[in-house]
Amino acid sequence: QVQLVESGGGLVQAGGSLRLSCAPSERTLSSYVMAWFRQAPGKERQFVATIRSNGGNTYVADSVKGRFTISRDNAKNTVYLQMNSLKPEDTAAYYCAAATTWGRNPKSYDYWGQGTQVTVSS
User: pLDDT of 13-27, one tens digit each?
Assistant: First the structure.
């Protein structure tokens, strides 16, 4: 069992930046594919970005491409989501997730954090 804890969310004006972090309460993340998803009220959970266990490959959703970057520091056992040029439509709860397989489908992910709220004001 892997318990994930997200941090770094908050309220920011449009055009601003935030960096989200995800770390496990115990165990190591180094062997897992990691991803970020988001969910706005009344909407389905949406894929944002994913990164392979060794950090060698990343994939980012078209809606955030060029603005968001996923990275990981296995020495610090932490995964990050750098979010720049934020827009009001980025407002959502952001979730960190871990999986043993590569993919964008949330059903592929075995472990989830509780989420951190990101609110972008116009």
Answer: 999 999 999 998 877
